[in-house]
Structures
1.
Amino acid sequence: MYDIKEEDYEGVVDQSRLSTTKESSSLQTQLPVLELLKDFMSGKTVFRNIMSILLPGVNSIVAERSSQIHGQYLENAVQLSLEIIILVLEKDLLLSDYWRPLYQPLDIILSHDHNQIVALLDSRMVGLVQLLLKSNASNSLIEDYAACLEAR
């Protein structure tokens, strides 16, 4: 899909090291794949959306493929999501050393244990976990809290 060469990301890396007050570059001048890598390596919106496509699992996708009108589109979305993950996994180690500590390799982002994060949240604020489970906001808060813990 995209083929990133060494000179493509060197400019972005060099610009990001110049100054923290100056933005490294605008979204319009960066390659879309670099923005995608940044999003994945920080566990942000695109990463969460792609994971929400993949999380239901094979059985539900197979069931929806045969029983729903949108089943074929869902299968295509899963295929494209997996291709994006493969693209990120191919390139993330190359860039993670330059972008640390804000960005981490995708395998580290994927390895977060939600149970440990829930226990840590519960220990810091009693009753928060039960409230979050009732409001169905727990997954996004757990992911955001994990990102905050990594940034420390």
2.
Amino acid sequence: MHHRIPTRWTFTQALPPRVLNVNGCDVRAWPGERPSPSLNVALGNRPGGGTPFKGRIDAVRVYGRVLSAAELQQL
């Protein structure tokens, strides 16, 4: 089984919500948190380790801007 799970994080002064999008549908939003520029990004685990994702991450893309819903649909 294959799922697309793009997640949008936007960090601005207004801190809009982070949005989880599964197979083209927004399924959850929660308040954003401003990240520390000194922290690393961790995919498949928490930054400190110890809680690994029990699955497979096939592809990762990072964009320098927020993608629109239409752009997410085209991925």
3.
Amino acid sequence: MTGLAVGQSWCGVAFLWGAAQPSILTAIRYRDEILRPLVRPYAGAVGPGFLLMQDNARPHVAGVCQQFLQEEGIDAMDWPASSPDLNPIEHIWDIMSRSIHQRHVAPQTVQELADALVQVWEEIPQETIRHLIRSMPRRCRECLSLRLALYQHWSLYESICNSSYTSCNFKLWSMHGQKKLQEFLADMGMKDIRIQTFGVHFSFKNRFLANDVVHAAAALLENTEKDESLGDNFIKALDCLSRSNLECLHGGIDLAKKKLMAIQQTVASCICTNLILSQGPFLYCYLLEGTPDVKLFSKPMALTLLCKYLLKAFVRSTRNKRCKLLPLIIAAPMDVEKGTVIVMGIPPESETSDKKNLFGRAFEKAAESTSSRTFHDHFDTSSIIELKMEDRTKFLDALITLLS
């Protein structure tokens, strides 16, 4: 390994700025050549409070390296996925790369490239490096967000009320939950409300978080307000990803707000009217025809959000410990003319349970054993199935028998 540069910073903290090597760095080499001989003794010298900063490169997050850090009691800082904004060395590499490309004669051999890199490194003004270091607080702020849906695009109160995380923690479907929210707004403090995320600026006024764009694109893709084809909706969802079509993105965010409010209202209605029933091996909820916004939940992504939100809310509100460990199956009218319903299943909310979704295979077996007429027109076949309305009862009975 060559080109190792260690810089001393404030508070006795040392930063490893860069390392160049002639071969590929694997997880085993990272553990044996960096973590064990360099990081471990330095962590021991620093003592309590040592925190390892590394990005999410594959060798860094591999199981053997994570196990080594855990065994040695070395804490590593959480890092946003693929985020060069939080790694100053990435910006230095960019400066060096552009300097190399601007040369009249490009390096022809590995040695010439190595010599050119050393020369370019020495030519970088120290003020450039200081500027990158001073920019780190701002970069960290840009990569931190709130666990609130679309909070930059409507009021904080609306965002809290219509985000599953806060709504379920406050139990906003109850009067007691509403009172707790008012007390919270007076105190303005909540544990784990901040998350790591990415943002983008379009001009000075338009700032969007990654989560905002996901909500907007999904809302446009499953728009039920206009009777348009799936192809048209797909094109609009694709258009909202372009920086030249901000109007489309803003329209998607407006649709996303309506969808989140519809989900929150449906969850509150299901909890308050006890529509979630225990069927033995799973919980079951059926949205009746005529339920407000039921057409929205004929779409798989909207139904997925509702299903996850509903299970989280139910777990927070029930006192039945067994029910807290059960998965949830939800059904909603799909196509009234065809007489079909869409059925979805998700694993339990409990953190100690297996998160793998096995409903896809269970749905197939239940349909085969009862000769239920099913349709498989969705990308996600692991948790969603469409079947005839009149087959719903025997299909569920078969599922109960199969999963018991």
